[in-house]
Design goal:
86% helix; Methane Monooxygenase Hydroxylase, Chain G, domain 1; 6 helices; mainly alpha; single chain
Length: 218
């Protein structure tokens, strides 16, 4: 019985890593489609979200099976409970990659009013945050989870840069307003991806320490 239990825990971790890789791929495709004006790749990113959703359901099924049939002990219960919480944020990150791609399709025929270097930086930073948060969970790496939380300040700084640049462009020419708002929304989605990565890291800390947001839960 314990062998089956350990196998299910290992499968849960394996599939969680797989979901993280899927999401990293979705973000990569989304930013590439945006930079290259590639509406076909943007459409593929939107469709790719279905695979992420299916994997979320599979992991959720494993977690619920462990809780209902295996009755995990305290440390393992925290781990499984944390994964269930993390799944919500991972699924939302996949949704945001799709949201970005939907705007990319709308902008496909337009010349960008500014270089997108800060948005590219946001994509790179948030991808690393997601990857590191999953890595921290699997390796039970508390310092890495805390580093993910700290990295959110960098993403917020990039967002401020994007917002200030776009507001200046609107001030220069009101005709820039429509695209500026679309690009600002894309930056906002990346900021939210960073926020979700922080949520994941906080649940990683909970899975290791039994504490969440400085409050003891288990």
């Amino acid at each position: 019985m314990r062998t089956q239990y350990d196998e299910q825990l290992a499968l849960m971790n394996q599939q969680l890593i797989k979901m993280g890789a899927y999401i990293e791929n979705a973000i990569d495709m989304g930013i590439k489609a945006l930079l290259d004006h590639d509406s076909e790749l943007a459409q593929k990113t939107i469709q790719y979200d279905d695979e992420i959703d299916n994997l979320e359901k599979e992991i959720e099924h494993i977690c619920l099976g462990l809780i209902l049939h295996q009755q995990p002990i305290a440390g393992d219960l925290r781990q499984v409970s944390a994964v269930l919480k993390m799944l919500t944020d991972l699924e939302r990150i996949g949704d945001h990659a799709s949201d970005i791609s939907e705007i990319t399709i709308l902008l496909a025929d337009e010349v960008y009013i500014k270089r997108l270097e800060h948005i590219q930086m946001m994509a790179d930073a948030t991808t690393k945050m997601v990857n590191d948060s999953i890595d921290a969970f699997v390796k039970k790496d508390l310092p890495l989870a805390r580093a993910v939380i700290a990295a959110d300040d960098v993403v917020d700084g990039y967002f401020i840069n994007v917002k200030e640049d776009l507001l200046a462009l609107i001030h220069e020419d009101a005709d820039n307003g429509g695209q500026a708002m679309d690009l600002l929304m894309i930056a906002k989605y990346f900021e939210r991806i960073g926020d979700h990565a922080v949520n994941i890291a906080e649940w990683v800390i909970f899975s290791i320490t039994g504490q969440h947001k400085n409050k003891r839960i288990l």
